[in-house]
Design a protein that fits this description.
The structure is a single chain. With about 230 residues, this protein is mainly beta. It folds into 2 domains: about 90 residues, Sandwich (Immunoglobulin-like); about 90 residues, Immunoglobulins (Immunoglobulin-like). Helices cover about 10% and strands about 40% of the residues. Strands 3, 4, 6, 7 and 8 form a 5-stranded antiparallel sheet that branches. The radius of gyration is 37 Å and the shape is rod-shaped.
């Protein structure tokens, strides 16, 4: 048998090379991990905060879940507390971190998962604030009563975790006076002080309450009742 013509050999090799190139071009591209970074933390309170992340690449596959992982230790993972984001229309997202402990340091990382696995953003640290509330205050008994004046005092037993802005006594001829009635005001408050009330009417019953105001509002002490002396 004679050897095949050289032209047939060349054609066969060319077809083989074309088939190999076609196979290489059509080979599937495997997905990779997404890339993501963690947003800064804002709106921090004693029990909550806001954060999130931005997905810069999806790794060539659909993101199946994304959100923020939270821990009291650095570099949290999906094995720690998760706060997931339900939206899928944007590359960036924001979530609320809630049920946090006051005055506590936490660490968060944004995460995104596709078919290749889970990727994490940078580690971010923040500390919740101290829980604040209204102050607690006591009204001192009335003393030094005359026909036109009386002495009493205000004592702050708790500032509620906030700076006391001002404090003093409020009084009225009606029970449960407020700062909308007559009042004394100590602008640079100490935690207790004596206050004198003057220009009262003789032989008249008055009601006094101490008050203290912080950023949460105004609280009142116990009510003290007294009657001025006759002229």
């Amino acid at each position: 048998m004679k050897n095949p013509p050289i032209i047939l050999v060349i054609i066969s090799c060319a077809l083989a090379l074309i088939s190999c190139d076609k196979w290489e071009l059509e080979a599937p591209i495997l997905p990779s991990l997404p890339t993501i970074y963690t947003s800064g933390v804002s709106a921090i309170t004693d029990s909550s905060a806001l954060s999130g992340g931005t997905i810069t690449t999806d790794g060539g596959a659909t993101i199946s879940i994304r959100g923020v992982c939270l821990s009291k230790k650095p570099n949290p993972t999906t094995d720690d507390t998760l706060i997931t984001d339900k939206s899928t229309t944007k590359d960036y997202f924001s979530v609320r971190l809630s049920a946090l402990e006051q005055n506590t340091t936490y660490y968060i990382r944004a995460f995104a998962t596709n078919s290749a696995g889970t990727a994490y953003g940078n580690n971010v640290e923040f500390t919740t604030s101290v829980k604040t509330s209204l102050s607690s205050v006591i009204t001192w008994p009335a003393s030094g009563i005359t026909s036109t004046s009386v002495n009493s005092g205000v004592e702050v037993t708790s500032d509620g975790g906030e700076l006391i802005l001002y404090m003093g006594l409020c009084w009225s001829r009606n029970p449960n006076p407020t700062v909308s009635d007559h009042k004394t005001m100590i602008i640079s408050p100490v935690y207790s002080d004596v206050c004198s009330i003057t220009n009262l009417t003789a032989a008249t019953t008055y009601y006094i309450r101490a008050y203290a105001t912080n950023s949460k509002g105004t609280s009142y002490g116990n009510q003290v009742v007294f009657t001025t002396l006759p002229k």
